[in-house]
């Protein structure tokens, strides 16, 4: 039977072997939710980079660029880290470079995997159906917050496990914990996460609508996959 595991933060990724594994990266608030939304609204490709300097270099080549640090837009870039930024004709057919505090770093750390997919609650069902059709083990890599565990990405991991539990064996305790957490809160994730640290950060910025949007399940069929240095539509 195939196995599914959860890495709760990229700082723990070195403890796992991912060379024969499909990695699903989740940065629910908000990088991977933005990426899924962008592909749903017609973006051509997204280049995830770890640093602001790299993002600026892509911008100089003519790419639209999005840079976020500490949940705020970095000055000098066209796009920010809100999914609503990507609901525009401006991004249709565009190539975008993106750097964020956590999510893009998690993607770039996963390059040795068989495939790197971008996951969110928004494309949860599409991801689950695709993984059932593949023969590889799965690792959910939670982007976390600056190396620390966070609640929203762990909940996504648990939600994906809930969709796959009849097809995959749970490899480690982190997978069991994530699944139990999701089962405990799935009936009202917004309320369940009310005191979560990143919720508080985002609420201070006055973007409650981003929180509510990113916790919606199964809005889109798009699955971004890393090909070379760019994310494209699977």
Automatic annotation (TrEMBL):
<keyword id="KW-0460">Magnesium</keyword>
<protein>
    <recommendedName>
        <fullName>Probable 2-phosphosulfolactate phosphatase</fullName>
        <ecNumber>3.1.3.71</ecNumber>
    </recommendedName>
</protein>
<comment type="similarity">
    <text>Belongs to the ComB family.</text>
</comment>
<dbReference type="GO" id="GO:0050545">
    <property type="term" value="F:sulfopyruvate decarboxylase activity"/>
</dbReference>
<dbReference type="InterPro" id="IPR036702">
    <property type="entry name" value="ComB-like_sf"/>
</dbReference>
<dbReference type="InterPro" id="IPR005238">
    <property type="entry name" value="ComB-like"/>
</dbReference>
<keyword id="KW-0378">Hydrolase</keyword>
<dbReference type="GO" id="GO:0000287">
    <property type="term" value="F:magnesium ion binding"/>
</dbReference>
<dbReference type="Pfam" id="PF04029">
    <property type="entry name" value="2-ph_phosp"/>
</dbReference>
<dbReference type="GO" id="GO:0050532">
    <property type="term" value="F:2-phosphosulfolactate phosphatase activity"/>
</dbReference>
């Amino acid at each position: 039977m195939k196995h599914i595991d959860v890495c709760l933060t990229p700082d723990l990724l070195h403890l796992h072997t991912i060379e024969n594994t499909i990695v699903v990266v989740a940065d629910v608030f908000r990088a991977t939710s933005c990426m899924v939304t962008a592909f749903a609204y017609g973006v051509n490709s997204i280049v995830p980079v770890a640093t602001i300097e790299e993002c600026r270099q892509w911008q100089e080549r003519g790419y639209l660029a999005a840079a976020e640090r500490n949940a705020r837009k970095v000055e000098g870039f066209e796009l920010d880290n809100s999914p609503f930024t990507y609901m525009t004709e401006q991004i249709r057919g565009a190539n975008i470079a993106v750097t964020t505090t956590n999510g893009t770093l998690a993607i770039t750390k996963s390059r040795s995997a068989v495939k790197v997919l971008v996951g969110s609650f928004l494309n949860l069902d599409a991801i689950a159906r695709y993984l059932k059709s593949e023969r590889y083990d799965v690792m959910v890599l939670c982007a976390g917050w600056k190396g620390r565990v966070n609640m929203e990405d762990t909940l996504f991991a648990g939600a994906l496990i809930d969709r796959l539990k009849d097809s995959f064996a749970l490899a480690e305790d982190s997978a069991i914990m994530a699944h139990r957490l999701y089962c405990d809160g799935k009936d009202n994730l917004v309320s369940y996460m009310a005191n979560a640290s990143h919720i508080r950060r985002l609420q201070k910025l006055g973007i409650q609508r981003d929180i509510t949007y990113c916790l919606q399940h199964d809005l889109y069929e798009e699955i971004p996959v890393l090909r070379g240095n760019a994310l494209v539509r699977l």
